[in-house]
Amino acid sequence: MIVVAAILAALAALVHVYIFVLETLRWEAPATRRVFGTTAETAAITRSLAANQGVYNLLLAIVTAVGVVLVLVADPTSGERAAGDALLVAGLGSMTVAAAYLIATDRSKARAATVQGIFPVLGLVALAIATLAG
Known about the structure:
Elements: H1 2-25, H2 30-36, H3 40-73, H4 79-105, H5 110-133
């Protein structure tokens, strides 16, 4: 089950790298503006805010990716494996909370929250099952 958790976590990390690209590198592009429902004027004004948010998404992806590597290569009884589990909980948990906050504060963003949150939630569930199974 740890492999399933790692795959789901890796997918979550990839989604967050994609969000980083949109928010940091492509924020003012017409396709990105359509995704986020912004105008050219709003995108220009909010560029630095979006880029800052994009960096947070990249950092969550990095934390999660390092956790994936550790849980897959470390001895299950080692401290490295425990560190990998902790990084997965931190990364996936933060992604989950961000998605929950998005949907709680703006129901029109339910699709975005689902895209952002489905892999982290499923990854946390799989990690919990793997941990309980020993």
